[in-house]
Specification:
It holds the Pfam family Sugar_tr. It is a multi-pass membrane protein. GO terms for molecular function: transmembrane transporter activity. Its main location: membrane. The protein is mainly alpha-helical. The protein has one domain. It contains four helices and no strands. The longest helix has 29 residues, at 35-63. The two termini are 31 Å apart.
Length: 81
């Protein structure tokens, strides 16, 4: 139960904190003539990295006893790109 509450807190904190920043910055710095294409590309890359993290988290959890730490570290490193 503690891990579920921690995950919910993480999602809420990310959504209220740094989660929407890429979309705010993207709408401000892109010129209007490429805003649609560049916004679509950035959103695709964001969802693609999220799906890679989701698909590999189970693999990392089964790989070692400290898999939870490794999967969280892996997710943080991918999201910082």
């Amino acid at each position: 139960m503690l891990s579920v509450m921690g995950l919910v807190a993480l999602v809420i904190g990310f959504s209220l904190g740094v989660g929407p920043i890429p979309w705010i910055i993207m709408s401000e710095i892109l010129p209007p003539n490429i805003k649609g294409l560049a916004g679509s590309t950035a959103t695709f890359f964001n969802w693609f990295t999220a799906s890679v993290i989701t698909m590999t988290a189970n693999l990392l959890l089964n790989w070692s006893t400290s898999g939870l730490f490794l999967s969280l570290f892996f997710a943080c490193m991918l999201l910082q790109l």
